[in-house]
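Section 5.1 Outputs to date
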Amino acid sequence: MNFLLSLFAALVLIEFASAQTWYFVTFTTPAGSYISSYTGSFVAPTLPQAATYYLWPGLQPRDNAGVLQPVLDGRSGTWWIGDGWCCSNPSLPWGSGFNGTGSCVNAIRKTDWKHPIEVANGKTVQFGLKVNSIQNGTWATTLSSSGGGSATGTFPLPTHPMNQAIMAIELYDVAWTFGQFAFSNVVIVANTTSTAWCTNGPTNYQNAAVVSKSTPVATVSGGQTTCTIASIVLVRPA
């Protein structure tokens, strides 16, 4: 798990002075292969209070330069969501719900967002991250909430092919007391005929979370593997 640890440690040193806690699982494709699509849905938990809760699915490249992520943010006391590339190399404006500075802290603020999506407790969010081609590397993002609201974004990342699909709970000076973070109908497409990365996954960071999941199903067609997970839930701290 060095790919996330190196990035997250750098972010802590540079941008955060607060206590940070991570819970996440990751599907990682084999060397030389990359993810072209990551879609699914998740349910917004009941937000206990206004605090720095960041809940997200996301994609990370092999070079560990950042994370492309739709972030469910609880800092205002109500869930808000938007897509962004965090946090450097390149520095891109946040889109699909907010427009910030490209910094994990400064960008994820309701006051910075042009068209934020408010997500009520218990509502389902559908997300999509799709690249037009591995060579070009321009990602199209989509978000919609069962409570209303939708947004799209475009992120040019031609030098950062994505090989890690992540589902994460990121907390600062606050505990995981909001119950489960539940995903459904997750589909990951990668340009490989290998299936083990899907059927053997995901890895659970430091086994920090109790995770419940259906058996991942891998299908191969046209030189691509489609990994489908009907349900995957970060239940509670281990």
